[in-house]
Please model this.
Amino acid sequence: MNRSDKPSGFETRAIRIQAERGPAGEHSVPIFTTSSYRFPSGQAAADAFAGDRDGPIYGRFDNPNTDEFVEKLASLEGADTGLATGSGMGAVFLSLLGLLHAGDHVVGSTAVFGSTLSLLKEFLPRWGIETSVVPLTDLDAWRTAVRPRTRMFVMETPSNPGLEIANLAALADIAHGAGALLTVDNCFATPYLQRPLELGADIVTHSATKYIDGQGRVLGGAMLASRDIIDTVLPFYRNAGPSMSPFNGWVLSKSLETLSVRMERHCDNAVAVADFLAGHKRVRRVLHPERKDHPQHELAMQQMSRGGGMVTIEVDGDRDKTMGVMNSLRLFTTSANLGDTRSIVTHPASTTHSGVPEEVRASLGISDSTLRLSIGLETAQDLMDDLNHALNE
Ligand SMILES: *Cc1c(COP(=O)(O)O)cnc(C)c1O
Model:
């Protein structure tokens, strides 16, 4: 695969960055289900192990499908390179453990994915890495959390499910002033809508399970960064083995080919549904970054080309009424996933955030009446009709 002669458009790169063709001249890349690779001679094997020879060695860290996926995603994020992982959490774990040492300190946002918060609060301290957790949008809190050994800031934007927007350029300045790296989980936006590295971030992580697959089929993740950072993490990656399977690499690389058209339609449908719900008398509040009444609409539109496919609403009623709305939906699926072609409804207070203390939930904008909607690619009118009937029930 040669990125140096690649055409420059986002869609063209998403489609045309491809593993080298084999003897059959296949147009679409095949799946390389091999755990290992043969060497032409004993000396070639010795040279490969000594790092003096290019070419694949072993499936834990080399595979044409996973390499194609991660090189393509790195190009789309504007990163030098990256590492593919078996899940999104594998990528988060890799970005932390591959770079941090005992005695280091990390500042994270309260509004990160639940498992990321568990790594920060429960697991890193076990290994002698200290952590602080601060509100995503409070820049002073990030500043005052900095300690002499602060090495990393960790966050997601837009956040889940409050759809808060982190000011990435400002946070990159604060992090760099403290000698720390800024890591952004770009799962909700994808590189089609937002490229954190261009705004000053140092590392992007992805759960490719969500919009990158986009069809609810496979787990996957990736860490993207400069060659220096990836070279630092590489020994840990090779030895610890959080690898992605060739099949998942193949599926996810194919998925990137259609990311731009899917994300445009997710955004169109989300805006249509959000506008409809904003005018519905049984809905108290609607959040979508593309709507002017989003508290950080301007910042969102500076950092993102569009608002994404997630809509968070506050139902006008108590927990029972809200559960009733969810149960009356016929098209929306009740699930904890997001970023699927199929629209999904989630009640964060009783599922994804049930382990979060109530006052912290409130600070994240989650009440018993909050519903998170992952707007899929069905006909927008059918989604609105479904919500309308469920709200009026
Ligand atoms: C789902 C998710 C993850 C974890 O990804 P997995 O692929 O499920 O391991 C991390 N961050 C965000 C924002 C997510 O939505």
